Predict the 3D structure of the following.
Amino acid sequence: MRRIRPDEVARARRDPRLLDAYEYRNEIKGHYRMSGDDWLRRGNCADADPEVMFPEPREPVDDALRLCASCPVRTPCLVRALEARDRHGIWGATAPRERRAMIEAWKDINPLAVGA
Ligand code: SF4
């Protein structure tokens, strides 16, 4: 697995999806529960083929990202993935590689994240 470059992490820090996740995480901090994934059942991918949401490396991710684009729980989904440092599959409209960069940025801006 190729290492994440510093410029990718720097770009991730400015990514509006990450900034939304950070804001959301701060708003709900005391109420967030990793196990309370009711929101996941409201996601656009609730009935999707798992192979779409967890593509093999180098497989296209466009179908999954299309589902995420209009998903009503996109931000909590990304928060969950960042806090769990989940590097696999599509979460919160992010592909694995870009999320790996976001996870590095998340450690800096949110050192109390689960697993830190
Ligand atoms: S943002 Fe994407 S991965 Fe997350 S629940 Fe919605 S459709 Fe599924």
